[in-house]
## 1
Amino acid sequence: MGAYVVGLLVPLVFTILLQNSRNRKKRGLPVDVGGEPGYAIRNNRFTSPVTTAWEGIATLAALFEQSCMQHRNKRFLGTRRLIAKEIEKYEDGRSFEKLHLGEYEWLSYGQVFESVCNFASGLARLGHRREERAAIFADTREEWFIALQGCFRRNITVVTIYASLGEEALCHSLNETEVTTVICGHKELKKFLDISGQLDTVKHIICMDDDTSANGSLVERSSRWTITSFSDVERLGRENPTEADLPLSADIAVIMYTSGSTGLPKGVMMTHGNVLATVSAVMTIVPDLGGKDVYLAYLPLAHILELAAENVIAAVGCSIGYGSPLTLTDTSNKIKRGTKGDASMLKPTLMTAVPAILDRVRDGVLKKVDATGGISKKLFHMAYSRRLSAINGSWFGAWGLEKLLWNFLVFRKVRAILGGHIRFVLSGGAPLSGDTQRFINICLGSLLLIDSAPIGQGYGLTETCAGGTFSEYDDTSVGRVGAPLPCSFIKLIDWPEGGYLKTDSPMPRGEIVIGGPNVTVGYFKNEAKTEEVYKVDEKGMRWFYTGDIGRFHSDGCLEIIDRKKDIVKLQHGEYVSLGKVEAALIVSPYVDSIMLHANPFHSYCVALVVASQPTVEGWAKKQGIAFVDFADLCQKKETVKEIHGSLVKAAKQARLEKFEIPAKIKLLSDPWTPESGLVTAALKIKRDVIRKTFSEDLSELYRS
């Protein structure tokens, strides 16, 4: 009997002690800094910002070469073999391309380094000079990374452009930076031909695909440029090797064009030292990062989150397997039925994600659970409840044997969606809802007794090379973005107009300002905007004014609570934070995307809602509602009433004020995609573009 009691008490005592230690741990500490007065926090382990984690390494080019020499024979970059493409047609007349993909085929670190050196020499052979800029305009793939590192070996500044960028923004980016060489895929090559008359400086196009010569019309129409395949550039370099012309820390590595959520994109100038500072800082946060890890790469490499992440992975000898958002899981849109998705085939241990992707994973799991029904549904919700109790300190849910049981019966099936081996997910690019973060934490959490958090939520911007804050591995709280990274100081300054002050109680609040070696040089050819948001203090530290509003918790962790641009004052004086409300409402299972709209001349808000087709159609069938197609279903009063009711429920659960809840909504049947120009490549809504596109619908909501 005594042994039985001890067996029950040990997990209980261990859990309580663990919970208390987490609560007491200081993750960030106050620090005295220069510049504008504010409340500043530093990382608890580093008294001054980290610039590099490797002795003698000051550039991304040097870091990459060192890693390739150390891990020469280890597998590095992997790409799935394309077996076949098919077009599937549906009864409603729509058709979709489906891919049959095979195993991953790998290049070693030594092979990749050889390709990088050959590509660098090939650029020189083509006549690309050091002072000229090259642009990479393609989806994420191994050639993208090889081209990046090849340019670095010639100290060529790389201009990164989202593959989904529209013609106006594409022309603006290329002409502003006077790019002479463009590296792209076959799909992007066609876009260039459509705007060829609007490009001023482009001389060479390097196509990552080898089938350009097969399409004679493309080549004939490209008399203004030379078009060369990627493999031919490598061959040129192999036959005509050229000495490396390596950069210095202060040289511009990348001009990264932002996603353009508020108009034409701005080119952020990043030095090698800027990006290296973030890469070095992340090294200290992810536990046990090393050669056994496998990373799934599918986000745009034109986004600093992905670019920094892949450089971290390369620095420590991990493997990178390439995929895409449309082939990520077994049920992704482009995966042929019966074919495994990228995650199932690769079985990654690490991945990055933006909130929109994680929201889809959560919604997909819940939809499948609801569709299955019966005892499976009951088991899932029982298991979820017990694990939630564990995180909240209840010893029953934390008991090791019970946890292993739930993992075996329920959560291993959820983990299998992402390959079954995920141990850490880095979420960034936008705020992640607390509900989604908790859901992923529970469903993908550790198989061990300790409830560890598989999601590390980070906060940073293109202007800070993604560096800012990062949740530590043992922090199971949600809704926060962690303590400052070792490369950054985070400061809150007063914003009296919005009512946010560093003296606020119980937590200091204000505009978030980030300082450190990761803060970039500024905007390309835009001195006015650079001077507006970048400041250098009396100690020489560079600060970036984010426009985001945050507050510091007592343990030094940051929480994002508002954004200056997203705050609208209603007719009777109430302030509405559009982003905060959208984050609360997106948890509705009926919602794929949502944009709240507030008008200063009205006392209420309205919303545009992109409805989730599977969920809404499933509800309609249960209700016996007849409809012609999904667009017809979205126009029905019963549908609008049901979805509006779900938004009100979500708003009440999030404790929103009455004036924050949309009084009226417009349902939309077509998804917002980067290709449509309504969301960025990181799936953040383009508020101004959506407002203009649906101006008549918004006006109608206020009139009706």
Note: Residues 1-22, 395-399, 447-451 have pLDDT under 50 and may be disordered.
## 2
Amino acid sequence: MKLRQNKYDKHSYENYWIEGADGLKSNDNRKDFGDGLGANISVDYQLSNKSNIGFIYDYGFGHSNMNITNTSNYFQNDNYTNTLLTYAEHRATGKQHTASAYYDLKFGKQDHKLSITGNYFSNVPETTIDFTTTENLGDRFVVKSPSTVDYKIYSGQADLTLPYQFAKTETGVKFTNFDNNSNISYQNLINGNYVTDPLKSNQFEYNEKNYAAYISFEKSFNEKWSAKAGLRYEYAVVNGNSLTSGQQTENSYGKFFPTAYVTYKSNENHTFNLNYSKRINRPGFRAINPYRWYININSYFTGNPFLKPSINHNFELSYVYKGKLSASAYFQRTLDAFGQLANLKNENRISTFENYYNQNSMGVSLNYSDTFFKMWEANYSANYAYMNTDVFATDAASRKGNSYDFDVQNTLGLTKGKTIQLILNYWFRLPSNSGNVYMDFAGVFTSGLKLNFMERNLQVNVMVSDIFKQGKSIGKIYYTTGTHSYNNYYDARRLTVSATYTFGNKKVKGASRHVNFDEKNRAN
């Protein structure tokens, strides 16, 4: 059983400028604060020497709050027209439940394996936004926007591994059900009473069902050559219904997703690999839900219930030397890629998600891992990519450009038994491009100590992140109608202290079964 607790208080800022016939200079001065509690319990029981069952449950509860002062100055053809000053208080409470159960069985002379897993996830955040907007002429608007969002995800899958002599065969089926129901209200203070504005309120129901089946074959032909090929089929049924506006969306699609790789190992020092995969990238619920996050009375962020998943085709050629140095060259073709776009019309700014571009990317990546002097563990990686973006159906601009990022990780043992270790990590990105976005330099330097006491039963970690305050988000977003610029910082500099104490006999093997439930990340 594991217990966790957190509490945070940080100061952030956001700056956003829009240049064009309709202009905007927006500044957010923001305070984020909140807390959280959680518990995780795992139980694994061996029914026999070839079968076991298990259960994992996780509960989380917390508050996520913000106080934001926004100043928005508006322009027409570079001529100042108006200022809106808004003070907003965001108060959110969230409860999350995650439960997984599994059954594993080995059978047959070759230890065939059957795994059956069921998952459940529930997230029910309740949020109230109170904000007051004042115009430069003195007009004042007081608004309350309470909302409740109910995410529920169910999944079940069965996987079968058959280690035949002609090829190792894996096959399985999976079903996932997503429910996303939300009730968002926009209420104006009129004569001392809050009156709901039906045009800005929305009750929305979303359901998505995914059915999948796969099969793969893996074969080692000799000591040098091996290969694997697989095929996955997914079918999805999506329904969205706005109970407020009566707008309904229905969509269904089925697609095949092949994967294949070939590995050649010339000797113990040199390994080559060539692979291809086709993947689907589904949007998170925040990008789909038409929930509105208001900046002021005229500006808001919202999701798009018509958003579609994107498809990636990936090709990669890689080389590994002595298990320490790896290099790869890759090409990726992305179709119907989605992202967030902002549109300003007079003083009405709307930011939402769209499928708006196809992109070709090619690049190279390097990684080197080694241990020096028995006390210095190092891992270094670098990645370069060139991208060509073709925009459709929006006023975003097509772009070409390069991207560069690096990651340096060092762990130094300061004592003979490595009971005290020094951490020195630095991630940084040089000025880069992605989609229709140019990103300026950013970096995060993290350092700290890992301490082990009481025969390693007690572990204490003390870490400081973003020491040089380089974790800023600065760049430009290009449109055919003008250029948008941003300069944001979310107070990434922080001190983290954690302690873990292990009870009981270490020789007793605990539950270590990994349960893959990535779908719940879409609800965050």
Note: Residues 285-288 form the longest helix (4 residues).
## 3
Amino acid sequence: MEPPLASWPWENLGTYKYLLCAPLLAKAVGGRAWESGSPDRWCFLLLLLFVLRAATYHSWGIFSNMLFLNRRRVIVRDGVDYEQIDKEWHWDNFLILQLWLAAMALYAFPSLRHLPLWDARGAAVALLLHVAATEPLFYLLHRALHREHLFSDYHSLHHSIRVLQPYTAGLATPLEILAISGLMAVPVAAACAAGLGSACLLFGYALAFDFLRAMGHCNVEVFPGWLFETVPAARYLIGTPTYHTIHHTDKDSNFCLFMPLFDLLGGTLNGKSWELQEKNSAGSDEIPGFVFLAHVVDVMSSMHSRMSSRYRASLPYRTRPFLVLMWPVAFVFMLMMWAWSKTFVVYFYRLRGRLFQTWVVPRHGFHYFLPFAKDGINKQIETAILRADKMGVKVISLAALNKNESLNGGGTLFVTKHPGLRVRVVHGNTLTAAVILREIPEGTAEVFLTGATSKLGRAIALYLCRKRVRVMMLTASEERFQKVQEEAPPEARQYLVRVTKYQSAQHCKTWIAGKWLSPGDQRWAPAGTHFHQFVVPPILRFRRDCTYGDLAAMRLPDDVQGLGVCEYTLGRGVVHACHAGGVVHFLEGYEGHEVGAIDVDRIDVVWEAALRHGLRPA
């Protein structure tokens, strides 16, 4: 039987739990609470406080995921995985509970609704009582929660998280939140009882409490080491993120709320706290073995990032109506990224004990099709490659548009310009071709291929003709077609057929799209056609009587750790085939670059290597 107050009574409501706030919202709207003279103004202020408190945690969450800004000062250098994100999905349950506790207090004591705006004496009393009562009482409560039965029944949930995030502060049982709420009320209630309360005190104390709690859980050291060297007493007055993180690695030390003074007095101060704090504040880089150099597809998808929302980022990207309202904000961030003009580290994970990172070139998809942007984009990609080379990265894999043939020849430009590169530049298209080819059913006699003379199209055509599959290659260039045909074995060349119109494929049910297909192009496909594709962005699913494949992708091995981001529209744990191709290149320890034209003879070799390392078709 579950112990009392160990789970939230509205757990089964999911996101509908916010309807619990509806009565207060209805009362606020009905009473025109935003007007200064409204008797229901307190409802509006409580809801405003609820929003500001949630925004405080979310702001710290954004900060903690700004790896391009703070990766050197990250404390626990592991990624936040899907399991942790799901566990903390309803981290704000405590805000709903405390909203109603505050509403009941204001209902029980009407005088609290008419407090003055500010009283400095009340703030001084509250601060004094926080130090004299809330801090030591929290310390004693926290130590009590670490006793055997209380820990296993209640507090173990909070300690199940190793990589702290601001949202982890809210991962607690109702019993713990009720106890913390009581401690939070002590300083404010005492000031109000003495006639020194104010609206600013109610708001300010709650927001300051949340600010410090979120900071302590942010997993990024924000205090400079020199501060505690210059003012040694400050060590016992403010708990740093490092200080609180130690409690999650050594749960029998560092119990304090915000002031390590009480750990010192109680004999539970971890002796390495300041040494580790100084080390983390100084910052250091952990060199990744592998880097995937990605790019943003469009302004809307730029909001599908951990920095924006780790919850949305942990699910496959979908265009949602409410995101349209955020488009202007995303556009401003896009301009800021242009101004910054650097490659950003956006997330990382571990595989076989090595660090894998994803960097993003701050350019959106449409930039790659602007002729005047070509040199600037190549310069940024080149800078990222040289940076990876200087750091000691083993392999850097280029995402779809970053290796565009017309942009840099599939990465050939950089390898030719810098022949001494130690980092291996990989386009990953060998595995992409293998994934697409494995999707084609056995026994297929004929396919229709667009983008037929591109890097991938060429490799697919040459591979299939060797298997005696007739390939209708859509291309306007006779010269480029003949060049591909000449690469095929003499006995297989007859299986490569040049076509110039979509009508030529009106009886073929296997289409491989390497070039974007408009609804008008798709109408020539017969009913029952399956569209395979390797085009970015993906083609629109226009035909209801046809089926559409996703972009070539593979599922990472089961032993991947710390992965909590979905790559664009792909599912959890699935990455684009070019990303997976770079992973295989790294795991196999291949010495050469993989740039330019695809070696058709290596398609099966790379595929078998991928399966051997635990990657699976998605």
Note: Residues 225 and 278 are 5 Å apart (CA to CA).
